[in-house]
Amino acid sequence: MVFCIIIRGPLGVGKSTVAEKLAKEIGAELISIDRILDDYGLWEEGLVSVFLEAIEIAAEVFWKKGTPVIFDENFYWKA
């Protein structure tokens, strides 16, 4: 079965810890939006457009995986 869970929140609330434990528990792939922003060099002064681009990249990965995926997202600007 293919599904996704989105864990989203501000910096420091424990969403990454919860996402990692949940992914392990249910055998899901974990995709971190922060990591995508870093890996693709998308941090640009917190522009909403870069978050949307990172989410598009994550969605492509999700559809290719064909397995459950947990997205670890934020809604803050790195700066």
Overview of the molecule:
The chain is of the alpha/beta class and 79 residues long. The chain has one domain (4-74): Rossmann fold (3-Layer(aba) Sandwich), CATH 3.40.50.300. Helices cover 47% and strands 20% of the residues. It has helices at residues 15-26, 33-39, 48-65, and strands at residues 4-9, 29-32, 69-74. Strands 1-3-2 form a three-stranded parallel β-sheet, sandwiched between helices.
Question: Helix and strand layout, with pairings?
Answer:
Layout: E1 4-9, H1 15-26, E2 29-32, H2 33-39, H3 48-65, E3 69-74
Parallel strand pairs: 1-3, 2-3
Main features:
alpha/beta; 79 residues; Rossmann fold
What is the CATH architecture term?
Answer: 3-Layer(aba) Sandwich
Task: Give the averaged pLDDT, no decimals.
Answer: 79
> What does the largest sheet look like?
3 strands, parallel
The spatial strand order of the largest sheet comes to 1-3-2
Strand content: 15-25%
State the helix count: 3
CATH superfamily: P-loop containing nucleotide triphosphate hydrolases
Low-confidence stretches: none
The CATH topology turns out to be Rossmann fold
Number of DSSP E strands: 3
Rg value: 12 Å
Distance between the termini: 38 Å
Task: Tell me the helix content.
Answer: 40-55%
| Total domain modules | 1
Shape designation: globular
CATH class: Alpha Beta
* Helix and strand run: EHEHHE
